[in-house]
């Protein structure tokens, strides 16, 4: 009995060492970390490397706040923490400073500044009575030629979610992801006449991922082995907000140069032409962007011809049906981006082991629907009818199916599909038995070539 106890203690010690080793391997934190400088984003470097202006612009920011009122999503009751950081004004001022295009002045807490200046004046008047009055006066405050307004106007949760996983005999693994999105508007207002000089809009997704693995198995009747490992990573909201604000500041600068609203710098656009051209190209690409950072387009032309290899298996009145190979060729004509009419010719081999084997030549007509015609990857469904031709009387049938298509080149797509054939009569193999009509199932893999106009 004591030997079993020692064995269990030894096994637990080895298991703990293994878990610690796995923790280090996965990069999981196991020790406290020192404080460090904050991370920088991609646009922090871009702002710092921008061409310098001819003259810096004095700019004021009174309030750049979270306007969403969004709270953090919670699965366990209410969560009163806000989803967006509340220090977005400070983040914006830091971005303005990094760009070297502006002279930010204190306006968010202007009351504190004015109060402190009043204290200075009172102290000087009290203790420097005999001094020159000019030495006691404070220099005037800078005033802003432009005010920046706006804020975080949207926080959208779960705009994209998904995952994948599998489990077999107690061993499983899974991965999940979730995307949120923040949206920022920033506008420049002239203090001379209140004119809104420029408004820009940026957005940034926030990614959360989770990877898990587990093992659950009975070793014998009274022994159970269970283990699991997981890793979750959430993109910091503060960094996402910072990147979106920095992108907005860069966009404001470039559009201001292009539209000549930045004073002396507006008169020398030649030095900034490369920056303007790069921004214009980005705007052109962005015209086709949709949610999920996808860029749909009219990739497919009006006509296509295709060829495929099929695996076929009949469901008839005889036993032991066999899988056979066949082929299909055809053409498609698109009557709209979603719908096309398909005409094809294919071979189908009906075979039951050691009983019957017959090859049919089948012309078919289908109406097909591409569900996502403006994407390279699109599922599709179709249905129609056909005639089965052989050395016996023609048979008529209907068919429906579906699959997926992916454009691997400019005019070439790979297709994978499955099709179900339904006979109108129970006589494909020459035997009528029971009430069920003869049927068949097919699986196909092929290529689709697009030609013609879009």
From TrEMBL:
InterPro entries per the UniProt record, alphabetical: Curli_assmbl/transp-comp_CsgG, OMP/PagP_B-barrel
Keywords attached to this entry: Cell membrane, Lipoprotein, Membrane, Palmitate, Signal
Pfam family, one: CsgG
Signal is among the record's keywords: yes
Keyword Ribonucleoprotein on entry: no
Gene Ontology, cellular component aspect: outer membrane-bounded periplasmic space
Protein name: Curli production assembly/transport component CsgG
Species this chain originates from: Chryseobacterium defluvii
């Amino acid at each position: 009995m004591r030997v079993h106890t020692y064995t269990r203690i030894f096994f637990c010690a080895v298991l703990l060492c293994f878990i610690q080793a796995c923790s280090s391997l996965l990069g999981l934190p196991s020790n406290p970390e020192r404080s460090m400088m904050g991370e920088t984003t991609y646009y922090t470097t871009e702002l710092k490397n921008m061409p310098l202006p001819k003259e810096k612009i004095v700019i004021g920011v009174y309030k750049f706040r979270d306007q969403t009122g969004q709270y953090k999503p919670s699965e366990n009751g209410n969560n009163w923490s806000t989803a967006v950081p509340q220090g977005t004004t400070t983040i914006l001022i830091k971005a303005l400073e990094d760009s070297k295009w502006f002279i930010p002045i204190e306006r968010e807490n202007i009351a504190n500044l004015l109060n402190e200046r009043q204290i200075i004046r009172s102290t000087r008047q009290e203790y420097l009575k005999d001094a020159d009055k000019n030495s006691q006066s404070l220099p005037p405050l800078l005033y802003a030629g432009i005010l920046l307004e706006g804020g975080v106007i949207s926080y959208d949760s779960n705009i994209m979610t998904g995952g994948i996983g599998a489990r077999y005999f107690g061993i499983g693994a899974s991965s999940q992801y979730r995307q949120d999105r923040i949206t920022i508007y920033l506008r420049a207002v002239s203090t001379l006449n209140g004119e809104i000089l420029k408004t820009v809009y940026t957005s940034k997704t926030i990614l959360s991922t989770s990877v898990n693995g587990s093992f659950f198995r009975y070793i014998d009747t009274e022994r159970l082995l269970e283990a699991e490992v997981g890793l979750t990573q959430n993109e910091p909201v503060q960094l996402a907000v910072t990147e979106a604000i920095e992108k907005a500041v860069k966009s404001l600068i470039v559009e201001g140069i292009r539209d000549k609203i930045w004073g002396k710098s507006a008169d020398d656009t030649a030095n900034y032409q490369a920056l303007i051209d790069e921004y214009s190209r980005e705007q052109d690409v962005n015209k086709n962007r949709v949610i999920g950072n996808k860029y749909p387009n009219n990739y497919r032309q009006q006509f296509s011809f295709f060829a495929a290899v099929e695996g076929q298996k009949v469901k008839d009145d005889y036993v032991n049906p066999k899988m056979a190979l066949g082929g299909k060729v055809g053409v498609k004509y698109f009557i709209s981006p979603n719908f096309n009419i398909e005409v094809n010719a294919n071979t189908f081999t009906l075979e039951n082991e050691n009983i019957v084997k017959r090859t049919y030549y089948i012309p078919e007509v289908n109406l097909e629907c591409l569900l996502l015609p403006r994407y390279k990857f699109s599922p599709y469904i179709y249905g129609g009818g056909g005639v089965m031709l052989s050395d016996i009387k023609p048979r008529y049938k209907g068919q429906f199916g579906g699959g997926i298509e992916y454009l691997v080149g400019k005019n070439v797509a790979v297709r994978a599909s499955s099709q179900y054939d339904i006979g109108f009569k129970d006589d494909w193999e020459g035997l009528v038995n029971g009430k069920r009509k003869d049927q068949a199932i097919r699986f196909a893999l092929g290529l689709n070539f697009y030609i013609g106009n879009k």
